[in-house]
Amino acid sequence: MGLVCAAIIAVLIVQGGDRSFRLAFFWMMIATAIDATDGWLARRARVTEVLPGFDGRILDDLADIHLYVSLPLLLLWRAGTLSGNLAWLLVLPLLSSAYWWSQVSAKSEDGFFLGFPCYWNVIAFYLYMIRPPDAVSVAVIVVFSVLTFIPAPYLYATRGGPFATLINAGSVGWFALLALALFGREDLSTAGLWLSLIYPALYLGLSARVAARRVSSPASKG
To answer: 138, CA 20 to 30 Å: which among 42, 43, 82, 209?
Structure first.
């Protein structure tokens, strides 16, 4: 299902134009919802028992690298979000994400992502919709590319852990605001866009809180 979404997104990006790009982001939202529930569905369907030779994690990674990284970056390039002489910087998140996905320790045993978990679909959405100055876009791309290599913990809410209920419940309201930003009347779209920033800020803030607790805990010092 995720790969079908990826195919639809690719077609919309190739078509070009603001409406197609907005529809592409909408399909990224659908793909994110699928990604959040596919593990639960696979367990309910007893895939490992029915297809013992099939590794769903490999298929999941195959879809995710397109949905979270390559297609959002392609959209930013196709939309000309960065000036022509800066567009090459989009290679940085592509390579840093490939490194992150290749790490055995990208996900911790206690249920966290280690390093920025390649949410370039989210970053692409805000860079496209807000259209900040190039200096801001470059700073965002470089900073989050670097954060991929720093093994700080980030919340992995669909696996439980601290703040999971808040993050999972908050995603419903966040998705509603994203839809409003994409397809709402101009005044409502603008309000939805800026209000929606609260959720990713909350996610990063709570992740930073977990990281700070680990640094300051006696166990981590030992």
So the answer is: 209
